[in-house]
Design goal:
The chain is of the alpha/beta class. The protein has 2 domains: 181 residues, Periplasmic binding protein-like II (D-Maltodextrin-Binding Protein, domain 2, 3-Layer(aba) Sandwich), CATH 3.40.190.10; 148 residues, Periplasmic binding protein-like II (D-Maltodextrin-Binding Protein, domain 2, 3-Layer(aba) Sandwich), CATH 3.40.190. 42% of the residues lie in helices and 18% in strands. It has 13 helices and 12 strands. Strands 1, 2, 3, 4, 5, 6, 7, 8, 9, 10, 11 and 12 form a 12-stranded mixed sheet that branches. Strand 1, helix 3 and strand 2 form a beta-alpha-beta unit. Helix 3 packs antiparallel against helix 11.
Length: 345
């Protein structure tokens, strides 16, 4: 009952001001410079009430005198806004996150590198070597099954099990043309099996008539829970745990290697509040900030902070991952989308 227990712990932590979490000591000079700037603006794709506002509250409590102005935007919206602000010569954002935002903005020369001290111990795969971005949180894309329809011995814990004729027309995935959708699955297959065997496998999978759902990964999972489909592909593993805690007949499946994507956090080039931006990024990536994300039921990128259910991360869950970086996404996505359109639509 990991998430239910966490909800109780989160309520207690609110009253205690998160006193049980070790504080991260930022550089005094940086803190003073940030307080002199007085504010920082953050464009985020995370859910405001669930994650962003608790993070803002924790930061402002730790660093009085610095106001965080946060707004929720999709990755594409972040790219458009940051580029428009730069062209006008009036940048507004200081900090942003978004899995599909960072690389286009890096290419446009609109990202300022910063190696946050709090991220020194992060997995090198979860941060850009020159400091252009660091993972704020992680996503693990896995199959999910309706446990009243799929028996444990039928769980698709191998790629071959997805080819069982029993599941023809009963598998679904989002039509999202990103590495968090079918293109990511296709890329994983080709990297795991090699080009020839991988293409043969994908042709067989296409014969299973996988349903393309024009909605989010969460909607696909809901359709699995309702029994409309038996299996969902490329769903977030933490979503299944959250739903199962509420009594839904659903479980996520460890199909190695699991696709891991990151939600990169970065600083805008020529940010109007550069010191406050660095301080906010350093806080978000610290154990203290990452614990806020843990309580918000996101999967922390910081290796020192477990997810609410430790099995959701590779070490606790005993699964292998294939990390897809923003740079790798930019390099491979177009060809993977082309294969998806050709084979599965």
């Amino acid at each position: 009952m990991f998430f239910r227990s966490l909800a109780i712990a989160a309520a207690a932590a609110t009253g205690l001001g998160m006193a049980s979490v070790a504080g991260h000591a930022a550089d005094d000079a940086l803190v003073k410079a940030a307080q002199k700037e007085g504010s920082v603006t953050w464009y985020s794709g995370m859910i405001m009430n669930q994650a962003v506002r608790p993070m803002v509250d924790a930061f402002q409590k730790k660093y009085p005198g610095i106001t965080v102005n946060a707004a929720r935007h999709t990755s594409s919206e972040v790219v458009l806004k940051v580029q428009s602000e730069a062209r006008a010569g009036k940048p507004q954002a200081d900090v942003f996150d978004g899995s599909a935002a960072v690389f286009p903005l890096m290419t446009a020369g609109l990202v300022e590198p910063f190696k946050a001290p709090s991220a020194a111990g992060y997995d090198p795969r979860n941060k850009q070597k020159d400091g252009y971005w660091t993972a704020e949180n992680l996503y693990f894309l896995v199959p999910a099954v309706n446990t009243t329809i799929v028996s444990k011995d039928e769980y698709p814990d191998t790629f071959e099990k997805l080819l069982n004729p029993k599941w023809k027309g009963r598998i679904a995935w989002t039509s999202d043309p990103t590495m968090l959708g079918p293109p990511g699955f296709i890329y994983n297959v080709l990297q795991t099996m090699g080009q020839d065997k991988g293409m043969t496998y994908l042709q067989k999978l296409a014969e299973q008539k996988v349903a393309n759902v024009p909605a989010s990964q969460r909607v696909v999972l809901d359709k699995v829970i309702s029994g409309e489909y038996a299996i969902g592909l490329m769903t977030f593993n933490n979503h299944s745990v959250i739903s199962a805690e509420k009594g839904a007949p659903v479980a996520w499946v460890k199909l190695d290697p699991v696709i891991q994507a990151v939600n990169p956090l970065a600083i805008v080039k020529n940010a109007p509040h550069p010191n406050a931006a660095k301080l906010l990024v350093d806080f978000i990536l610290s154990e203290e900030g990452q614990t806020v994300l843990k309580k918000a039921l996101y999967i922390p990128a910081n290796p020192e902070v477990d997810s609410a259910d430790p099995e959701l991360k590779p070490k606790g869950g005993g699964f292998e991952v294939r990390v897809v970086s923003p740079e790798e996404t930019a390099d491979k996505l177009k060809s993977m989308v082309s294969l998806y359109d050709k084979m599965f639509k």
